[in-house]
Amino acid sequence: MPAFLRTLISPLSLAGLLTIMGVGLSLGLPSDADGALRWGVLGVFIALFLAYDHLPPRTPLRLASDVVQALLALWLAWLEPRVGTVPVLLVVLVAHLAEHWSPRVVLPTTVVLNVVLYLVLRHSGFTQPLLIVAIYAGFQAFAALTAHYARSAEQARDALARVNADLLATRTLLADGARDAERLRLARELHDVAGHTLTAMRLNLRALAADPALAGREPLVQAERLSGELLGDIRRVVQSMRDERGLDLATALQALAAPFPRPGLRVRIDARVRITHPMVADAVLRLAQEALTNAARHGDAATVWLDIDNEDDGVRIDIRDDGQRAERIREGNGIIGMRERLAELHGTLELARTDAGGMHLTARLPA
């Protein structure tokens, strides 16, 4: 489903749009220039309302959209004060603000809007403008609290999904590490027990074959030959079991991204990459986790690409997304945590933007 349509049919957006259309119906059909102006103002308000969620989050562009919507709602209240439904636009606007901004921003903004609304109604000749503003302020508070709690529930759900994904990925790595440990234990047992016993048996068979009374006996020669072949087979099995395949990062990374419906994660790991140290594998998982979180929260990305390649004596991890960010990427706690984690492993991190405006992370770690 396209992102625009998915946003449009979300419960809060759909309720807001229906409320705005209700205000439009109360204005009636435009019969003169003033009516056309009112509908033009309302049309611009609707366009900004629909486009808001597709603007880069927490940027001057979104802030400008909020200011313009507030001015449009107050202007329409000035143009059509007698209808009585136009202040409902401020209820929708405050709910929208509460959905995307913190209470520290929403509360003073709401106070300013209601003060201006009071002045507009008083100038228009209302006998009790304070009562009207108080009634609409109550609606605004209710709408703001509803949007705030919906936002908090969504953030809690996302946090729970991240924790669950982290547990799944860690469990995958632990299971893979346990399989490697068990394979190593079996290799040692085969080498130390079966290998030792077969070697002793071959020595005894050779001693018997050297006895003149038994020399040349076919069963003895065949037993000595089969024991040699069996010892060689065991050595090859032991060697193959001891060969280090590295931890299964691909499965762990997919488990990390599985609970997130958006963005999707596309992983490519070079066949020559071998990561055997658990701390290095954990650092790669944390990099991918932070990249997914940043892509979803700050870039509205649909896809994250993660490539792991060999480089000199270590590995290079390239992570990029198709999101849209501001020209200057600020390093928050997540990026700082990445750098600190990599520094503990003598790794480095480079941060840049893709040509399309997404984030591009390049990490280098010793394998």
From TrEMBL:
Keyword NADP listed? The answer is no
Gene3D superfamilies on file = 1.20.5.1930, Histidine kinase-like ATPase, C-terminal domain
Keyword vocabulary terms for this entry: Kinase, Membrane, Transferase, Transmembrane, Transmembrane helix, Two-component regulatory system
InterPro entries in UniProt: HATPase_C_sf (IPR036890), HATPase_dom (IPR003594), Sensor_HK_TwoCompSys (IPR050482), Sig_transdc_His_kin_sub3_dim/P (IPR011712)
Listed CDD domains: HATPase_UhpB-NarQ-NarX-like
* Any Pfam family the entry gives: HATPase_c
Bilayer-spanning residue ranges: 36-55, 67-95, 101-121, 130-150
> Taking every annotated instance into account, which residue ranges of this chain make up the domain Signal transduction histidine kinase subgroup 3 dimerisation and phosphoacceptor?
182-243
For this UniProt entry, the molecular function terms from Gene Ontology, in alphabetical order, are: kinase activity
Q: Does the keyword Membrane apply?
A: yes
Where is each Histidine kinase/HSP90-like ATPase domain found?
281-366
The protein's name is Sensor histidine kinase
Which organism encodes this protein? Answer: Stenotrophomonas nematodicola
